[in-house]
Amino acid sequence: MTLHNGAKPNCLAQSVSMVAMYLGLLAVCAGCNDSSSLSYATDGDTEESPDSESEDVEDTEPQDNTDSSIDTTPVDPALRDIIVFHSNRDRGDWEIYIGNGDGSFVTRVTHEPGEDLNPCFSPDGEYIVFDSTRDYYREIYIMRRDGTQVSRLTNNYSLDEQPVFSPDGTQIAFVSNRDGNKEIYTMNTDGTSVTRLTNDHRNDEFPIFSPDGSLIFFVSTRDNGWGEIYSMSSKNGSQLTRLTNNQNHEQHLTLSPDGSRVVFSSHVDGTWELFAMDASNGASLNRLTNSKQMHEQWPSWSPDGGIIFYSACWGECNIYSFNSDGTALSQITHETRSEHPSSASGRPVGVY
Predict the structure, then answer these.
(1) Domain map of the chain by residue range?
(2) What pLDDT does 338 receive?
(3) In the chain, pLDDT over 70 holds for what percent of residues?
(4) Which class for 303: exposed (0-12), middle (13-18), buried (19 or more C-beta within 10 A)?
(5) Residue 97: how many CA atoms within 13 Å on its side-chain side?
(6) How far apart are CA 2 and CA 8, in angstroms?
(7) Terminal Cα distance for the chain, rounded
(8) Strand, helix or coil at 321?
(9) What is the mean pLDDT of residues 57-71?
(10) Which among 5, 43, 85, 347 could disulfide-bond with 330, CB atoms 3.0 to 4.6 Å apart, if both were Cys?
């Protein structure tokens, strides 16, 4: 891995807290695997609206928001990690950028007046899924990594956000309040076969797939009003397992490539700090950051498991990385506005 000086990314789903919206976004698609034969429909605009089971509904005409003026300068192929993140560094609104894991060759890939947030690389690194208010309501879109061939995947009057790819690239998990409160859904990469996985009166969000695709990890306030971490079957929401039980809000999850550890942000001592624990049972809790001044969120694990990228904020937000054992801290971006990693890949993936 050529990301030296410390920094690390990973693709994690995103939160809508005021702090998170103020921070930038860096999130790596955890659990994404290399899959060169994947194909995504980027010329259609279909969606299914679920009840308790998946059911087909008609959608509207496809929407192609391709901007022919997009700078398609390639990132350096010699570097192993490419990160995708959202930032308000230009014009003050939120746009999506990609760049090398060392902070070089940063390229803006969206140019819309609405907020473009929560980007996540497909497992082959060729596509990015994200949510946006470009068409007024927050919907989910997919585009090529250079910002072309934009297609809208959801189309309703509700909030659809925090999309993440499954490891095989065939499905997208996301959060929606279309049925009242925030619940977790899955759909095909063309927007069809929408299935609701959670059904609770409290909010469920920040979904992320396990590396083998069998589980989805997420955060819910269902049991005590605090954001706790759970896992469930990615097929039907069964096999619900609670992994944390405290009075700290948890959010922004990312899994190690082997699926054994989960890194997350927790609100302790008045700030957001990063912790790691066993993904199977929540044991072996380890605190990774302890700044007591910076809000450290949006962790994203690199595909080889060596580096974790995250966003740290106090006033402005920038992207940092460190080795998975907490050593070799490095600052990746140096902006006066906010940036958050959303996906990191070890060629290809969220950090690609």
Answers:
(1) 18-35+63-345
(2) 61
(3) 72
(4) buried
(5) 27
(6) 11
(7) 12
(8) strand
(9) 39
(10) 5
Which has more pLDDT, 248 or 119? 119
Using omega within 30 degrees of 0 as the cis cutoff, is the peptide bond preceding 163 cis?
A: no
CA proximity to 259, closest of 215, 204, 198: 215
Q: pLDDT tier at 191 (50, 70, 90 boundaries)?
A: very high
Element (H, E) at 20: helix 18-22
> In this structure, which amino acid lies at residue 144?
R
The candidate with the shortest Cα–Cα distance to 99, out of 87, 116, 111, 114, is: 87
Identify the burial level of 162 via C-beta atoms within 10 angstroms of its C-beta, where 0-12 means exposed, 13-18 middle and 19 or more buried.
buried
254: amino acid identity, one letter: T
pLDDT of the residue at 75 = 45
* Cβ–Cβ < 8 Å for 142, 174: no
pLDDT single digits (tens) 234-261: 999 999 999 998 878 888 899 999 999 9
DSSP-assigned letter for residue 170: S
- Nearest one of 291, 288, 290 to 327, comparing CA atoms: 288
Q: State in words which class domain 18-35+63-345 has.
A: mainly beta
Output the pLDDT for position 19: 28
* CA 100-101-107 angle, 5° bins: 30
Phi first, then psi, for residue 71 (nearest 5°) are: -75, 115
pLDDT digits (tens, 9 = 90+) for 280-295: 999 999 888 887 777 8
Q: Residue 342 — very low, low, confident or very high, per pLDDT cuts 50/70/90? A: low
Give the single-character DSSP code of 351. Answer: B
The whole-angstrom separation of Cα 312 and Cα 334 is 11
Q: How many CA atoms lie within 13 A of 13 on its CB side?
A: 28
Report how far apart, in Å, the C-alpha atoms of 27 and of each of 54, 114, 174 are: 28, 20, 14
**What is the value of pTM for the model shown?**
0.77
